[in-house]
Design goal:
The complex is a heterodimer of chains A (121) and B (197). Chain A is an alpha+beta fold and 121 residues long. Chain A contains four helices and five strands; from the N terminus they run H-E-H-H-E-E-E-H-E. Chain A has helices at residues 2-21, 35-40, 42-56, 95-107, and strands at residues 27-32, 61-66, 78-81, 87-90, 116-120. The longest helix of chain A has 20 residues, at 2-21. In chain A, 39% of the residues are buried. Chain B has helices at residues 4-17, 49-53, 71-80, 115-125, 146-153, 161-179; strands spanning 22-30, 35-42, 85-91, 95-103, 130-137, 140-145. Chain B has a six-stranded mixed β-sheet with strand order 3-4-2-1-5-6. In chain B, 42% of the residues are buried. Chain B has 197 residues and is an alpha+beta fold. Chain B folds into two domains: 4-113, 2-Layer Sandwich (Heat Shock Protein 90), CATH 3.30.565; 138-197, no CATH class. In chain B, helix 1 (4-17) runs parallel beside helix 4. In chain B, 34% of the residues lie in helices and 24% in strands. Classes of the chains: A alpha+beta (121), B alpha+beta (197). Chains A and B meet through helix 1, helix 2, helix 3 and strand 2 of A and helix 1, helix 4, helix 5 and helix 6 of B.
Chain lengths: 121, 197
C-alpha cells in the first residue's frame, strides 16, 4: 500500500532526525487543550503549528499540551519555551497569529510583545 | 462548539485525563433513520455511580483550575436541540462510553466538521495513545487504527509534524471516498485506512 509505505518512509526519517538531536534541549510549544481552549480554536491553532513546523522542517521543537489554565477568556493560549529562556504565554491566538509567533519567536528569537499575557522564568 | 468533531476531541481529552491508554471513536451517519451517532469509548479509570449521576451537571468537575465542567453539558445541549440525547455508561476501573445522538437533518445540528483534524491533533498531543476511529456512512465504512498500523510498522511518532500531516491526509481521503456513490471506486478503498483491507 502506497499510504503505509509513505508513513514508513516518514517514520524512518523522523528516527534519523531524532538520533542527530539526541542530547539537545528541545524548544517547546505548549497549547492549552481544555474544553475552553478547544471551543475557542485550539485545534485549528495546533493544526497550524504542525503545518508550520513541517513546512519549515523545525525538528528541534516539541509540541505538547496542557489542560485548562484558568485563563479561559484568553483562549486559545500558546506557550513558547525556547531552550534556556523564559516561557512566554500568548493569548487569543489564531492559526494566522501562531504562524507569526513561530517565525518571529522560535526562528528569529524575538518575542511578539502585542499578544503576550504572561512570562515565566 | 462550532463543529461536532470538536466535541469528539474534547471527549478524547477527557478520556486521556481519566488515564485511558486506548480510545475508540465511532461515527455513524444514517439518513434512513435521520440519525447521527457519535460514540467515544475508553479504557480509563471510569466513574463511580455518584459521579456518573452528576456528569451532565455543569457545576460538577474533577478539575481544580475552575469549578465548572462544561464539556459534557455542552455536548448534551448540542444533541438535545436536534432531538437527540447523550448517554454515559461507566465502570470504575474499566472505562467509560459516551454516546451522543443527533437528528441528522435537523436545522440546528452543528456540522460534523473536520474529523481528520480531530484525530490528527488528538494523536499529536497524546502520542502514546492507542486510537481507533470507525466512520460509517449509509452502509459504507472506513477504519483507522494506530495499533494495527504499529503492528505492521513498529512504533510511530504520532507527534511528528510529518506523521500528523500523513494522518490527516489519509483520513481525509478516506472520508472523501466514503462520500462517493457505490461503484465509483475500488470497494476496498473504503475499508481500513493506510493499511489495506
Amino acid at each position: 500500500m502506497k499510504s503505509l509505505e509513505e508513513l514508513n518512509r516518514i517514520r524512518q526519517q523522523a528516527r534519523e532526525a531524532l538520533k542527530v538531536r539526541e542530547g539537545e534541549q528541545p524548544n517547546r510549544i505548549v497549547v492549552a487543550m481544555g474544553t475552553c481552549g478547544i471551543a475557542a480554536g485550539a485545534r485549528e491553532v495546533m493544526t497550524a503549528i504542525l503545518e508550520e513546523l513541517a513546512k519549515r522542517s523545525l525538528g528541534d521543537v516539541t509540541v505538547t499540551q496542557t489542560g485548562c489554565m484558568g485563563l479561559c477568556e484568553h483562549e486559545p493560549l500558546v506557550t513558547v519555551e525556547r531552550s534556556g529562556q523564559p516561557a512566554v504565554t500568548y493569548g487569543n491566538i489564531t492559526a494566522e497569529r501562531v504562524r507569526r509567533v513561530i517565525t518571529q519567536h522560535l526562528v528569529n528569537n524575538t518575542v511578539v510583545g502585542e499578544w503576550v499575557i504572561a512570562t515565566k522564568r | 462548539m462550532r463543529e461536532l468533531s470538536l466535541h469528539v476531541l474534547d471527549l478524547i481529552q477527557n478520556s486521556v485525563e481519566a488515564g485511558a491508554s486506548r480510545v475508540d471513536i465511532y461515527v455513524a451517519e444514517d439518513s434512513g433513520v435521520n440519525r447521527l451517532t457519535l460514540r467515544v469509548t475508553d479504557d480509563g479509570k471510569g466513574m463511580d455511580p455518584e459521579l456518573l449521576r452528576q456528569v451532565l451537571d455543569p457545576f460538577v468537575t474533577t478539575r481544580q483550575t475552575r469549578r465548572m465542567g462544561l464539556g459534557l453539558p455542552l455536548l448534551e445541549g448540542a444533541a438535545r436541540q436536534t432531538g437527540g440525547s447523550v448517554a454515559v455508561t461507566s465502570v470504575p476501573g474499566q472505562g467509560t462510553t459516551v454516546t451522543a445522538t443527533f437528528g441528522l437533518n435537523h436545522l440546528d445540528r452543528a456540522p460534523l466538521g473536520d474529523m481528520a483534524a480531530t484525530v490528527m491533533v488528538a494523536l499529536a498531543v497524546n502520542p502514546e495513545l492507542k486510537l481507533g476511529y470507525r466512520h460509517r456512512r449509509e452502509g459504507s465504512e472506513i477504519e483507522f487504527d494506530t495499533e494495527i498500523i504499529e503492528r505492521q510498522l513498529g512504533r510511530v511518532s504520532w507527534g511528528d509534524p510529518r506523521v500528523a500531516a500523513w494522518t490527516r491526509e489519509t483520513i481525509r481521503s478516506g472520508l472523501t471516498r466514503l462520500s462517493e456513490p457505490e461503484g465509483t471506486g475500488p470497494a476496498h478503498d473504503k475499508g481500513r485506512l493506510g493499511y489495506g483491507t
